[in-house]
Amino acid sequence: MAGLLRISARIDALNSFLGRWLSWLVVAAVLVSAVNAVVRKTFDVSSNSFLELQWVLFSVIFLLCSPWTLLSNEHIRIDIVNHALPLKLRSWIDLLGHLLFLLPFTLILLWLSIPFFLTSYRINEQSFNAGGLPQWPGKSLIMIGMAFLLLQAISEIIKRIAMMRGAIPDSNAEVLSAHESAEAEAARLAAELAVDRK
């Protein structure tokens, strides 16, 4: 189990590194969007490449930061129901969800996205819009994103099994419900206000 946990830690470190750095592309996407809007309104000039660049940047953020989102436990889940369940049952739900849904989902999309990308790359597919960007780099993001998400799914399965065996602390024990998180944030803000008033 120790060897698998080392592999899991390396996957986590890789996806955390990528997620932290690629999340800065949100700023780039906002800047591209703002410049495009200002140039279009001020000079009545626009380019489809700016618009398509925004789409590509959003795709990078969405697809390549999704493993980091899963790692950080920030993905969408039915917290109200999940948090009310016993810890052992939550662990089984997480494990089965990763095995029966996430793992097959990433494998199928990875399998389908490889020929999708290769066909586009072979013909050097270009945008249908005048002045647009090449299409194959954007299509490669599906394949790359699913590969990293597959790695993170494997890491999450390894960690969940280790948690259920008692080899590492259970992360579900530390997770607060949305209501508890809001209460904790409100208490933190109230404490800051009290300090500021003194």
Broad shape: flat
| Separation, N- and C-terminal Cα atoms | 52 Å
Count helical runs.
7
What's the SSE pattern?
A: HHHHHHH
Percent in strands: under 5%
User: What integer value in Å does the Rg equal?
Assistant: 21 Å
Total tally of structural domains = 1
Runs with pLDDT <50, length 5+? Answer: none
Helix content: over 70%
Write down the overall mean pLDDT: 85
Structural class: mainly alpha
Please outline the major beta sheet.
Answer: none
* Strand segment count: 0
Short characterization:
This protein is mostly helical and 198 residues long. The N and C termini lie far apart (52 Å). It has one domain.
List the helices and strands and how they pair.
Blueprint lengths: L1 H21 L2 H19 L4 H24 L7 H6 L2 H36 L13 H30 L12 H20 L1
Helix pairs in contact: 1-3, 1-6, 2-3, 3-6, 5-6
Written description of the protein model:
With 198 residues, this protein is mainly α. It has one domain (2-181). Helices cover 79% and strands 0% of the residues. It contains seven helices and no strands. Helix 2 (25-43) runs antiparallel to helix 3, helix 3 packs parallel to helix 6 (136-165) and helix 5 runs antiparallel to helix 6 (136-165). The radius of gyration is 21 Å and the shape is flat. The mean pLDDT is 85.
